[in-house]
Amino acid sequence: MVLQTLHARPFPCYTDFMKSILTNTIKIAVAAILAILCAQALKLDFAVSAGIVAILSVQPTKKETLRTALARLLAFAVALVISVALFNILGFTIPVFFIYLVVFILICQWRKWISAMAMDSVLISHFLSFGKTGFAEIKNEVLLFIIGVGFGILVNIFLHKKADYIEELKNKTDGQIKLALHRMALRIQNPALADYDGTCFTSLNQSIFIAKRQAEENFNNQFTRKDTFDTRYLEMRENQTKILYEMYKAASRIQTVPSTAGLLADFLEKVSTEYHKDNDVKTLLEELALIHEKMKTVPLPQARAEFEDRANLFILMERLEEFLLIKRDFVQTTRGDYPFLSFYCAYSIAFINCSD
Question: What gap in Å lies between CA 258 and CA 348, rounded to an integer?
């Protein structure tokens, strides 16, 4: 059951779900209200339509909002040309508006301007009330479009959430992994450890999923340099979690306390303590290699139970090496992409060593 949970697609927790709904509600409402007030201040006809345009312009990310706004602008220009031509040739009647809809929808389907069909057509319908398409009328509709889309973009840029939220999520994920390592160290020295059932992987997997989703959203909200660090960092943690689960299975099979358990438990505790994003794990890998050599000198067990448990310890130790190698490879790759992080990581590690 735990294995199924580990690989299942988790649902966001209720708090994050409600936070997301509240944030989107505020963004959309503020955009609509400001657009309507601005349109009223300019004494435009159908000022409320600016709010409707703003509501339809707010998208989940800044990138998507800008892309959609550009598509709707092009579609609106086409809608103006079609409507002005049809209304002035055939008259300002409902049947002519039907003809406009057929032509405009056909073009939107062809150009993949699907999101523009409803919004632009609402603005074009105002010409039926005006009964003409003079400069003043066209100016009114163009300003409604600009105000609505403009406030949709501005609100999405300035009220978009979570500058530090991704760091909070990454730290939460790291903390859960540290706790799993700590409890693993306790478990191999205490087979009767309470509540060692692997349920921690449910919340850990959920945290990684939510963090990856936020990293993707942040990526889509970048206008200039596309920084993929957070996404790759979380993928690295996700890969480590898969290995961590294999370590958990090996630890949970141990029924006694082998003579080598203390040595590995101390090292697991050390890994847990030093588990942070700036650790290149070089010294940890070197120490693990020494432990591996030291275990070779320990006499073979005489009892079957200890033999099986030491075999599980060996499996755990092998998986632990994979766990650390994943981090080492990530750090090496990251330093190649972000040279300035090399100095930062070295400084952080030196500071930690000095503090000890």
Answer: 36
Instruction: Provide the sign of the torsion angle of the four alpha carbons 154, 159, 162, 163, taken in this order.
Output: positive
Which among 219, 197, 267, 210 has a CA at the least distance from the CA of 237? 210
Q: Are 30 and 159 in contact (CB under 8 A)?
A: yes
Over 80: is that where the pLDDT of 221 sits? no
Domains recognised in the chain with CATH numbers = 16-158 (no CATH), 165-355 (1.20.120.940)
Rounded (5°) CA angle 167-249-14: 40
- What's the rounded Cα separation, in Å, for the pair 305 and 312? 11
pLDDT tens readout for residues 65-113: 777 888 889 999 999 999 999 999 999 999 999 999 999 999 999 988 8
User: Sign of dihedral through CA atoms 189, 193, 198, 201?
Assistant: negative
Q: Is the full-model pTM beyond 0.70?
A: no
Lowest-confidence region among 183-197, 220-234, 255-269, 321-335: 220-234
Q: What is the 3-state secondary structure (H, E, C) of the chain?
A: CHHHHHHCCCCCCHHHHHHHHHHHHHHHHHHHHHHHHHHHHCCCCCCHHHHHHHHHHCCCCHHHHHHHHHHHHHHHHHHHHHHHHHHHHHCCCHHHHHHHHHHHHHHHHHHCCCCHHHHHHHHHCHHHHHCCCCHHHHHHHHHHHHHHHHHHHHHHHHCCCCCCHHHHHHHHHHHHHHHHHHHHHHHCCCCCCCCCCCCHHHHHHHHHHHHHHHHHHHHHCCCCCCCCHHHHHHHHHHHHHHHHHHHHHHHHCCCCCCCCHHHHHHHHHHHHHCCCCCCCCHHHHHHHHHHHHHHHCCCCCCCHHHHHHHHHHHHHHHHHHHHHHHHHHHHHHHHHHCHHHHHHHHHHHHHHHHHC
